[in-house]
Records
---
Amino acid sequence: MQLRQPVMMIAMALLVSIMGIPSGFGADVAKIGTVNFQKIFDNSKAGQKVKEEIKEEGQRMEADLKQTGDEIQQIKEMLERDAGVMNKDAREEKKWQYERKVEDVKALKRKYDRQIQELQMRLVNNVRKEVLAIIQEYGKREGYLLIMEDLNTVYSPESLDITDKVIQLYNAEHDKKKKSS
């Protein structure tokens, strides 16, 4: 009888500890989310504003190139039209002017391409920084263990995608900044 009581106590302690193990493991569920930066950029107000700004700058540059191209076309037409009546020196001068203008336009186009790429990189990086700050703040507030960009994710259920929520938060912050300025 004396042996039964300690065995019974050990069995009860073991049973209670075994029953408590599953609840200890299940208490902390890992909350994971994914975001799609391209979708955020395409659908957010700030992203659309950046696209519009880049488009306007590109159109301005294109108009400038078109104007210079028109000048080149005028020189070419004048050279073709008046080549027969011009003396050799005047013809060579116009031909040199034409070739110089063509090279100037090529250089200007390269310069504009570089400027538009730099503008695009700067503005897109600004949007990305703002979005990352929003994602980090949202992740901390909502208790996420991990939020990753879906760019390199092979598969994830739609329920993990928080992109739409991030767009809502970003649009709200963009509106708030717009009102304050």
---
Amino acid sequence: MSKKYDFIKHNKPTSNNYVYAGRSNIHNKGLFARRDIETETILCEYDGPRLSRQEGEALAKEGNVYIFGESPKSCIDGSVSWNLARYANHSCCPNSKSQKINGRIFLKAIKPILKGEEITYDYGYSFKNFNDNPCNCGKPDCVGFIVPQKFKSKIK
């Protein structure tokens, strides 16, 4: 899917001073700290073409796992090559979070992150059909599925 949008001109870096993509034990590729990172640091932007919610949901049903629900009416197609944040995996015990700032989505550290540590955040998928979204984070409190925090006690 990313080839569809790669013609779009952009001046977005595909790496930065804080993070890089590499091999992950959670899921194939992951996002890692290039250096020690302090809490509240903006790590990178979740970027890509903006789509209507209907377009995003249709692409997700076709298998695009990089659709990020930005609002009730819009989504971001993060499958594009310049979206470094697409490599951040889900974890039941994340070290970052997604945050909307001035209409854009960023990953932000929620605790100190050590150099080489994998950057993770809670994807916050819907509880509906949770069995379709297994979690491989390996954390002690992992419930085995990607679900919002408020529903984790219903699965344990």
